[in-house]
From TrEMBL:
Gene3D superfamilies xrefs: 3.40.630.30
Domain annotation N-acetyltransferase: ranges: 103-239
Domain of life: Bacteria
High-level lineage: Bacteria, Pseudomonadati, Pseudomonadota, Alphaproteobacteria, Rhodobacterales
UniProt KW keywords: Transferase
PROSITE patterns: GNAT
Protein name stated in the entry: Acetyltransferase (GNAT) family protein
Length: 239
């Protein structure tokens, strides 16, 4: 993963606060999921830093969790030796925005608005984009926008996009169950690319769980390439 994509990946979905544990940066997520509630490498680390990061997690009432790139085998081995187990393998994908702006979006299919309308927040909440996750969007600095997707004059999808440098990152794509498999997600992604270009960004990136084969098939068909992969490593002690 190149520096521009890596910077955008972190900056457009930030934790509520960070603490340093040697070579790790530990995020406080306030219930907003592993992405912002995990520790990641941010310099040279030693084994004791893992334990220091776990103590920070404990002080915040979080499950000790680390985010490790697939190729970081030394870190993965050190975590597994300490009882951490892999969760939620994820791929980071990206594409040139110009590759998604080669055709017009049908009229009144997608709109960009910030702050999000109540219906967009309701669509997110109906899926897995909880109020705590929406709070992450609220604290991201501009430029950013929320996308509304419509089918048959009904609000049916929502997504969030933010920019850091030349890269726009797409987060929180949610389509209501009733309106899935109607091609709306494809138009939402294209709208993100159009908006990114208008703001001066040249690339669009996103993260997708490897278990979400349907979404991954859509992104592959649209021309996204895999730039990196990672997993979460958590230690969930039994009572």
């Amino acid at each position: 993963m190149d520096r521009d994509l890596a910077n955008a990946f972190e900056a457009t979905w930030p934790a509520a606060e960070y603490a340093r544990a040697g070579g790790f940066l530990v995020g406080r997520g306030l219930g907003a999921g592993g992405r912002v509630s995990s520790a990641r490498v941010d310099g040279d680390w030693v084994g004791d830093d893992i334990d220091r990061a776990a103590q920070i997690h404990a002080g915040w009432g979080q499950v000790p969790m680390f985010r490790a790139l697939d190729q970081d085998q030394d870190l993965i081995a050190a975590l597994e030796q300490r009882g951490y187990r892999r969760e939620t393998p994820t791929a980071i994908l990206d594409i040139a925005a110009a590759d998604l702006t080669d055709c017009a979006i049908p009229p009144v299919t997608t709109f960009c608005v910030w702050p999000p309308m109540a219906i967009q927040r309701d669509i997110w909440a109906a899926g897995n984009i909880t109020r705590a996750r929406q709070a992450v969007m609220d604290r991201v600095p501009a430029p950013k926008t929320a996308i509304l997707g419509r089918v048959e004059d009904r609000a049916a999808a929502a997504a969030f996009v933010a920019i850091q440098g030349p890269v726009a990152m797409l987060h929180g794509i949610e389509v209501l169950d009733r309106w899935r498999r109607r091609g709306l997600a494809r138009w939402v992604v294209r709208q993100a690319a159009f908006w990114a270009q208008e703001q001066g960004a040249s690339r669009l990136g996103l993260a997708v769980s490897r278990a979400n084969t349907g979404a991954r098939a859509l992104y592959d068909a649209m021309g996204f390439r895999e730039a990196a992969g990672y997993g979460y490593y958590a230690r969930r002690d039994k009572d």
